[in-house]
Specification:
By secondary structure, the chain is α/β, with parallel strands linked by helices. The protein has helices at about 30-40, 75-85, 105-115, 135-145, 150-160, 180-190; strands at about 1-5, 45-50, 60-65, 95-100, 120-125, 125-130, 130-135, 160-165. It starts with a strand and ends with a helix.
Length: about 190
Amino acid sequence: MFAGLILAGGEGKRFGKPKAWAELPDGKTFLESCFRVLRDAGAEPIVATLPPGTDDPGIDGLTAVPLPSPGLDMFASIMMGFDRLIGFPDWEKAALLPVDHPLVTSGAITTLVNMTALAAIPSYRGKHGHPICIDREVATAIGRSEFPGPTLREVLREVGAVDVEVDDPGVVANCNTPEALRDALRSINQGS
């Protein structure tokens, strides 16, 4: 069993609004898309860090963790998300998915979760992407501030994260602007 952590607490200045509420062409928000792909891959529980002041985002099965203030750095958001996740029993790994990667497939997540490693980083055609899969031991240490960071990259280096090649262009489709979303959709629809 594995858990999901969606990082969706940013202000989304480059997108023009918080990316959690940005929409895909089918009308689903980035947050809904990330939740569904994690759920379809078998994640339970699923937690999302959200912009300050966010109440219930209206997604059954999603545990919301509103951030205490705007401008919190990514690692602090990860720590808060894992701190909430470690209260749930029975999961062994966590898939950490930034909300600006809504085009990832459940197959890529399943591949990462099935790796025997403390951490696994997907790559597509040699380029690193998301989600990152992290063992519960490492996630717990992050949630309890036992890894100083200052970024996840240092933690991944310290625990010897493995690279995992996946056949999913969605792992490298960072949709952090409307133009990036448009380009990613075009690239994926054309078969990369």
